[in-house]
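TL;DR need C-alpha cells for one chain.
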Amino acid sequence: DDRYLSIDVDTVNAVTLEDAKNAVMSQLHPSNLEISVAGDFQVNETLEMILKYIGTIPADANSEYTVDEQSGPLVGAVPALPQPGRHLDLELEDSDPRAVAYVSGAAPNLWGYLADGTTVKDRVLAADKKASDYDKQRRNHPLFANAALALVSEIANRRLFSTVRERKQLTYDANFSLTGFERLMGGYFLVTVTASKEKAQQALDACKETLDALRKSNPITPDNLESAKRVVLNRHEGELRTSGYWAQLMSGIQEESIPLKGPLSVTDYHAVIEAITTRDLQLTLECLGLDEDKLYTAIGRTVKPVGVELEDDGIVKASPMAGMNRGGALMG
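>> reply
TL;DR here they are.
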C-alpha cells in the first residue's frame, strides 16, 4: 500500500506548485475546523479573537478546491494483512556493521477498533463468559480499550527489555509500539530490536518468543500490572502540566469519527486505569495478531560498500573493564 511507504525522490520532484496548493487548500474548509485551546488565557478574550479571526471566514471559503467525495464509509480501515505472514531480509550499504529486526502484526487502533469493525470491548466481553456485572460495566466505559492497550504496551516493553536484553543479552534496545490511529479503524503493532549482524536472527526469535510467552506460558502477573499502572499514570500526570498534552487530549472530542473520545476520556482516566485487571489485559492481547502465521518479520543488515576499506584509526583500545560486555548485542 503506497500510503505506508516513504515517498521517493521522483514523486517529490513531480509535485508542482499547483498540485501542492490544491492538496492543502482542499483540507481548509470552515466546516472541518475544530479548535482546542489550552493554557493560561482569558476565556472571553479568546472567544472574541476566535470570532474575529475565524468566525468571520465565509462558510464556503475554498469551496473551489473541494474534492468530490468518494463513495464508501466516512472513516476507512487499515488494509487487511495477507495470511500467512511473511519474512523479509534486506541489505543496505553502510560502513558500520549493524542490524535491525522487526516483528509486526495487526492490532486495534487507539480506541480499540479493529480493521473489521469489531472492538476490543466486544471481543473481551464475548470471550469472558463468567464476567460479573461490574466487569461488564467497566468494559463498557469508552476509555476501557485505550487504557488496556496503554498497559499492554508498557508491559510488553518491560518483558522485551528483561528477556531480550537482560537475560539473553542479544540487544541494547527492544521496543514495542502501537500505531495509535484515532479515526482509521485498525492498526499495527511493531517490535523494533537493534542487534549485531550475527545476532539479529536470534534477537528476532527472542522477541517472538517473548510475545508468545506473554499470552501463554508466562502471562501478565499482578506485579506486572501494578508496575505498569504506576508508569502510565505518572506519565499522564506529568504530561498534564503541558498545554500541548491538554490540546492533544481535547483534539477530536467533537469529531463524530472518533465516537469514544469525549470528556470522560479526560475526567475518568485515573479511575479506568486503576480498575483494569490482568484478565482484561490477557483478553486484550488476543485482539492482536500474535499467532505465528500472522506475524510479519524483517531483518535489515548493513553491508560494506564496494571499494570502501575501513582504515585503522590508530587509537589504542583499552582493555575491557568489568561489566563492559553486558548487553552483548554489538559485541558479536
